Amino acid sequence: MADKEIDLPDIDHAHTIVQETMSNLIDSADVTKVYGRPIKQGDVTVVPASENLTFMGFGVGAGGGESTGENSGVGTGGGGGGGGRTLSRPVAIIIVTPEGAYVEPVMDPTKVAMAAITAAGFMFGMMLRMVRRR
Amino acid sequence: MGQTMKVGEGEITPYSRSTTVLFPGVSGGLVWNRPGGVIVKQSDGSEIELRIRDATRIAQITLLTIGLVGGLTAWLFLGRRNS
What we know:
The complex is a heterodimer. Chain A is α+β, with helices and mostly antiparallel strands. Chain A is built from 2 helices and 4 strands. Chain A is flat. Helices cover 34% and strands 43% of the residues of chain B. Chain B has one helix at residues 55-82, and strands spanning 5-7, 10-22, 27-41, 47-51. By secondary structure, chain B is of the alpha+beta class. The relative contact order of chain B is 0.13. Chain B is built from 1 helix and 4 strands, in the order ββββα. Chains A and B meet through helix 1, strand 2, strand 3, strand 4 and helix 2 of A and strand 2, strand 3, strand 4 and helix 1 of B. Strand 2 (44-67) of chain A pairs antiparallel with strand 3 (27-41) of chain B.
């Protein structure tokens, strides 16, 4: 084995970018991301409220190797990648009138229907399994 | 707590709930922001709190719980009867 040091690619810049992005992710935990700008129409003011879910992940790495055989040489490499997604969905609307304020929930019928189909499918599947055993 | 907004003669202050999870050992994480409620300060100085409930999530959890309990009940009762 040779005692030669292998110069690995500099990944400090990539680490800095990852840390900055992670810092921005943590900063996104803020009330301003949940409530929209108030919309005024006459005496009525409406404030939309939504739920936001953001997730992301990163990986950065570098490595190198040295061959001592007939075709000896030194090789290094590095790389990184990441991904993420933000999911947002309206939850409620705050309505403020001269008479008072109230909250109007926003129902997502597609999500509720999907849950109902899943529940019905599970129950039907269990019952079918029982009937087949007879 | 969010920014207080003057609405008519009163004020509303929205607040939210936030959950931050950072995955240990890797560079990653998630942030879940959801509305908590609104504190309404009326013109006479009284304050009321309006909680914001996620109707879609409540409906989803209720339906999935009914499905799970219904399926397990069928499995328990019909399964025992068969055996």
